Amino acid sequence: MQQSAQSHGDGGRKSARPRRSSVMRYAALCLPLVLASVLLALVTGAEALPHETALAARGNTVSLPSASNFVVGSIIGQPPTTRHYNFVVSEMKGAPDGFTKTMLVVNGVFPGPTIEANQGDQIVVHVTNQLQNRTTIHWHGIYQNGTNYYDGTASVTECGIPPGQSLTYSFSVADFSGTTWWHALDTQYTDGIEGALIVHPRAYPKGFPTWDEDLVVELTDVYHTLSAAIAQQYVTGDGPIAPLELETPDSGAINGIGQYNGSTKYTNFNLKPNKTYRLRLIHMGSAAQIRVSVDYHALTVIEADSTLTTPLKVAGVTLGVAQRYSVLLTTNQHAEPAGNYWLRAELASPVAVPGTNADIRAILRYGGGSALPTTGADPGVPGSGLSDLDSSKLVPAVVKTPPNPTKSYNVNFTIGGTPSGGTVATMNGTSWTMLKNAATLVDLWTDARRGQTFAPEGPSVQLGNQFMITEDSIQVVDILLINLGGGAHPFHLHGHTPYILGSGPGGFPGSSALNTVDPLTRDTFLVPSQGWLVFRIVTDNPGMWTIHCHIQWHMAAGLLMQINSLPSKSAKFNIPQDILAQCGV
Ligand SMILES: *[C@@H]1O[C@H](CO)[C@@H](O)[C@H](O)[C@H]1NC(C)=O
Ligand SMILES: *[C@@H]1O[C@H](CO)[C@@H](O)[C@H](O)[C@H]1NC(C)=O
Ligand SMILES: *[C@@H]1O[C@H](CO)[C@@H](O)[C@H](O)[C@H]1NC(C)=O
Ligand SMILES: *[C@@H]1O[C@H](CO)[C@@H](O)[C@H](O)[C@H]1NC(C)=O
Ligand SMILES: *[C@@H]1O[C@H](CO)[C@@H](O)[C@H](O)[C@H]1NC(C)=O
Ligand SMILES: *[C@@H]1O[C@H](CO)[C@@H](O)[C@H](O)[C@H]1NC(C)=O
Ligand SMILES: [Cu+2]
Questions:
Q1: pLDDT tens, 5-20?
Q2: What is the DSSP annotation of 82-130?
């Protein structure tokens, strides 16, 4: 592995629906269901152990992936191909921040394997479930145009892979490029089932900045309690801990290593001086917003989610859950004598809980020394006058003018306490609950085969706890999300990269507040506290697509709805037999 690649070390010292047969099933679900060592690559030019070796050496405990997992770009230029991956999902013990806990992981590593492809490739991932519960893998941001059943959305596009069984996901990235990630269903990813998914574009726009090396930086919050237990308490109120405290992470991690209770292990990025690096920041966490900065270094934003942007120089960026930014950083500073700098990931936790750590760090090294950076408090980028990223200032590198809308809907949402001390969230009055061993797409498809229609076109279709908008023709749809409560929520829409036309605090001021000239497109967007956001999509991708808050606890409490696009087309899907069988069809 190249000297510039990342290593891990201990501080561097050593390194729904109108009448149909299954109406009853949905009705039942309205009831309170609910929830239901580190590879010591030595700092200088070290070769990481292959992770098979690490697994053998460490037994049934989670290892860090080999450092090459975080370096991407070597496959650029290869002819189009099918890229195969084998994922084995299992339960293990692991300690990302030094505290040993139960983890759910892929292939025994955390974060999981990086999937890397070129635009035009086919990605095939064979997933074997060795957990005691069902699981699915979702490919965040991928369009799955024609393959909605491989979207990996539990209770929506599939019923989940039962324990001991497998499912092979196969999808094209001919229509997608950029920085994204994959993760397990609902809160399971909080326990570790997640990794990067990088798709290199066929070409970059003319004049787009270049870089010497390309690194993935996977950011997460860390919870010491198994997510299923947190979600259960959060929703039911059955436990002594208040909801906001339950939401608050114990710590965080950067590429699998974080700090807690005085631990001093850090991820080391071993860089070369006078080079430009592309850092692909990916928020793979569950609740806290994360602000990322590098001491003394400006960051130039060039990508938001999977959309390339006009370069914008900033001092720091804040990511909501599931958002991504690529930033360029040049290794040309001299403030630290040994050339070692903190990369800081500050968690904005919902509430201050004693003993938790919101100050998570990694080290960028390009001076050759192995000492810890000496900088204490965050110095910022002295003399630069730079401020943090305001994402409303980002302009796509290739501007696409949105088509004029043909339909518009508004949806309000709330999240709040229940009489029993739990939490419930609603979208237009419906609190989503997961179907057990059923999926809305599979139900639609099965009904269509029996000559039944799934749902009438238009809004306000509420089938049990499944609330959806159905469009059986290609429409340009504006959706106004209205946040009735306090706190910003990072919403994600599956299968699309919507135009984000505008957002703001207070009531929606009207269409004059929308940018229909050069809006940013992105798949995960923050709806401001007691505010609004409008996004626009074209319903030309057949299937069932969720719109949900990506804060895992909020989704568990019901903050999710669906868009059912072109049901006449999805009725003709050739849904794989494995998926039908796993739904008991
Ligand atoms: C499996 O699911 C059950 C029921 O939701 C939950 O109590 C249990 O903690 C889950 N196990 C794991 C390892 O997530
Ligand atoms: C923190 O570390 C100390 C010293 O190693 C240990 O005794 C204590 O149990 C740890 N506390 C937690 C919550 O991990
Ligand atoms: C980096 O560039 C600066 C300014 O051009 C130069 O002074 C310095 O020697 C270079 N450092 C290395 C290690 O090449
Ligand atoms: C939110 O939507 C629900 C369902 O349509 C409606 O009953 C409620 O009045 C709306 N709330 C506000 C504040 O608009
Ligand atoms: C949500 O509720 C509002 C207020 O009742 C209504 O105007 C709107 O059409 C509903 N949206 C959908 C998508 O059903
Ligand atoms: C999906 O595929 C259909 C048919 O090929 C095409 O018309 C449509 O534009 C595609 N949609 C997206 C979002 O790529
Ligand atoms: Cu939320």
A1: 455 554 433 332 222 2
A2: EEEEEEEEEEEEE-TTS--EEEEEETTBSS-PPEEEETT-EEEEEEEE-
The verdict on whether omega for the bond into residue 111 sits within 30 degrees of 0, i.e. cis, is yes
Q: From start to end of 375-484, where are the E strands?
A: 407-417, 423-427, 458-463, 466-471, 476-483
Q: Label the pairing between strands 276-283 and 324-330.
A: antiparallel
296-305, 309-318, 445-454: segment of lowest average pLDDT: 445-454
Q: Name the residue type at position 5.
A: A
Q: The whole model's pTM is what? A: 0.91
Q: Which CATH architecture has domain 220-393?
A: Sandwich (2.60)
DSSP 8-state assignment for residue 212: S
Residues with CB under 6 A from ligand 1: 35-36, 91, 132-133, 226, 228-229
| Percent of the chain topping pLDDT 90 | 82
List, in sequence order, every beta strand (DSSP E) within 149-288.
Answer: 166-172, 178-184, 194-200, 213-222, 251-254, 266-270, 276-283
95 Cα–ligand 2 center, Å: 13
Residue from 474, 495, 467, 484 nearest 558 by CA: 467
Residue to substitute in 427, 460, 562 for testing ligand 5 pocket (most ligand atoms within 8 angstroms of CB) = 460
Distance 565 CA to ligand 6 centre (A): 12
For the sheet with 122-129, list strands across it: 101-106, 82-94, 122-129, 166-172
Type of residue found at 487: G
Give me the residues paired with residue 222 across strands: 251
Ligand 2 atom nearest 99 alpha carbon: 14
Contact 117, 123 (CB under 8 A): yes
- Would you say 90 and 104 are in contact if contact means Cβ atoms under 8 Å apart? yes
Residue 561 Cα to ligand 7 midpoint, Å, equals 13
Q: CB of 264 closer than 6 A to ligand 2? A: no
User: Which pair of structure tokens corresponds to residue 68?
Assistant: 């090459």
Q: Residue 507: CB within 6 Å of ligand 4? A: no
CA–CA distance from 264 to each of 133, 221, 338, 382 (Å)? 34, 17, 19, 27
Domain boundaries, the chain: 220-393
Task: In whole angstroms, give the CA distance from residue 333 to residue 339.
Answer: 8
Q: Exposed, middle or buried, 311 (CB in 10 Å: 0-12/13-18/19+)?
A: middle
Amino acid of residue 345: A
Backbone φ and ψ of 538, nearest 5°: -110, 125
- pLDDT tens-place string over residues 182-220: 999 889 999 999 999 999 999 999 999 999 999 999 999
Helices (H), 115-192: none
Q: Which of 45-49, 134-138, 147-151, 383-387 has the lowest mean pLDDT?
A: 45-49
CA 92–ligand 1 middle distance (angstroms):
14
Is 34 exposed, middle or buried, given 0-12, 13-18 or 19+ CB atoms closer than 10 A? buried
Q: Which residues contact 560 (CB under 8 A, 6 or more apart)?
A: 427, 432, 546, 547, 548, 549
